[in-house]
Amino acid sequence: MNYALIDAATSPAIVHAIRSHAGRAHARALFERQPEAANVHAGPWLLRLDGEPGLQGLIQSQEGCAGAVARLRAEVEMEELFLHLEAQLDLRLTNGSLALLRFWDGRALNRLWRVLTPLQQRKFMGPVTYWSYRLEERNIELHRPIMEGS
Prior knowledge:
Blueprint: E1 2-7, H1 14-21, E2 27-29, E3 44-48, H2 53-62, E4 69-74, H3 78-87, E5 90-92, E6 98-100, H4 106-115, H5 118-125, E7 128-135, E8 138-143
């Protein structure tokens, strides 16, 4: 299935556009059950693109903004992918505190990906088999690492 992560902070009207094109079955705010819930208007949204042609145009209109859109492929339903991505939001620091991991922003993910081990990359990707985003006018593609014995 084809999905997108879109950073609502890049456009003030994007949440209204998302809600007008898709119901809850096709769009979920990753912050909706988090301490950051008051900021869903400026946070990441997971969109299921299959069966929603209006969302394709919306995504294409935002892809020119740096870090605004990531395209994902996963062979799981929306709820399972949502739960996996939601679980990736918090990063425990060495001092025990939590930090928000901005993985939906390609600029942050690009830096993170380079320091993760293949095992960490696989865990981060979970059910996602393909992840792409634009960075400095290039398409960056990430594929879930295949581990020996898997």
